[in-house]
Design a protein that fits this description.
With 372 residues, this protein is an alpha/beta fold. The chain contains 15 helices and 12 strands.
Length: 372
């Protein structure tokens, strides 16, 4: 029987509505889908302690596991309880090290390294920075001692995480939506107006005013933007000059996004260049792919690289004129949207959560085989 251990520092949500909670939910399901019996170490420290005690006992009694897959959270490990008090500061690292000593390869997905970027200084108080930065750095020190492989959203993050440590890219995955794909193909062949969809933040880092202005200045192009209502209320005055009757802002999540993805010709990621964004791979990128929706992106390194590699969209220069040029071109050449839609549907088959789980299983079990 194939067995693995799934380790996560928070409870695993049954119906997550944010990307950070969606990923562990989907990876856990994917390991089960590919045939693994999964022993779960999750929850806050009290719950994890009970799980760890049981699995340690099982291992000492001869139960065999193929690997451990762990996911980090946005907080340092020592502060992952609800109140951020470090009740069991060494428990998780010691458990991962224990597994390694028992010939169970350990891989961990490291979610983010935002604490090394200006974004962290701009959103955290000086006191929080003083407390958090050493704790985030401590996580990296401990990872070197207890991991076999470090998984990252993109390999571009490695230089900021653990340089010269065995690392692999493990971007988000998607869910196949076969009932949507025929609709998308038929829709792409009968385009009369260009429909664009953007899902995500409109913060300073995710400034979409270039896209808004390009749509406003291009006839027969329609833009739907889905973002948090509170955030939109706080920044909408800075977008007033770029609004028109072909731009709609909505506030939805989860399955409520389905009709918007299904009717969109393009999903847009037309953001300003930034070193942090260069290494990011938003879950919403792969959500769009899973709906068969091709991507329009500015030259943000990792997303642009994905679009070029999979041939699933268009990369434009970071300017209003650059975006307008692509939009005008697509209005005149709808056959390109047909082709990119078909490419995106094919790419969706190669980028499911099950594909990600299979990758982890193959890479970690191969390490175990080498040790044997």
């Amino acid at each position: 029987m194939k067995r693995c251990i799934f380790h996560y520092l928070h409870p695993i949500e049954d119906n997550p509505n944010v990307g950070s909670a969606l990923r562990p939910n989907q990876m856990l399901k994917a390991f089960k889908d590919i045939g693994y019996e999964v022993s779960i170490v999750a929850g806050y420290s009290k719950e994890r302690k009970a799980c760890i005690s049981k699995i340690r006992e099982d291992i000492q009694n001869g139960v065999k596991y193929d690997f451990v897959y762990s996911e980090s959270v946005n907080d340092p490990t020592l502060m992952s309880d609800k109140d951020h008090f470090p009740r069991h500061p060494f428990m998780d690292f010691n458990f991962l090290k224990f597994c390694g000593k028992h010939n169970i390869p350990v891989g961990l997905f490291y979610r983010d390294v935002y604490w090394k970027f200006p974004l962290f200084r701009e959103t955290c108080s000086p006191l929080k920075q003083i407390i958090l930065k050493p704790m985030f750095a401590y996580d990296l020190v401990k990872y070197r001692k207890c991991l076999n492989l470090l998984y990252l959203p993109t390999m571009r993050m490695q230089r900021y995480a653990l340089p010269n440590f065995p690392s692999r890219a493990l971007p988000p995955g998607g869910i196949l939506r076969q009932d949507t794909y025929e609709k998308k193909k038929a829709q792409a062949k009968s385009i009369k107006k260009l429909s664009i969809f953007y899902v995500g933040s409109l913060s300073a880092l995710y400034d979409n005013r270039l896209l808004f202005q390009a749509v406003k200045e291009t006839d027969d192009v329609y833009l739907t933007v889905c973002t948090h209502q509170k955030q939109w209320e706080s920044i909408k005055t800075s977008y007033e000059a770029y609004m028109c009757d072909r731009i709609e802002v909505i506030h939805k999540s989860g399955d409520a996004l389905r009709p918007y993805y299904e009717t969109a010709d393009i999903a847009a990621y037309c953001l300003n260049h930034d070193k942090y964004l260069d290494m990011a791979m938003p879950i919403k990128v792969f959500e769009a792919i899973s709906y068969g929706t091709p991507l329009l992106t500015t030259n943000i390194f990792s997303i642009a690289e994905l679009v070029r590699k999979e041939n699933i969209g268009w990369v434009t220069e970071t300017s209003v004129e650059g975006i307008k040029c692509i939009l005008e071109h697509l209005k005149s050449h709808p056959e390109e949207i047909v082709q990119k839609t078909e490419n995106t549907i094919l790419a969706a088959q190669r980028n499911t959560w099950q594909c990600r789980a299979l990758q982890v299983a193959k890479e970690l079990t191969s390490l175990k085989n080498k040790e044997n």
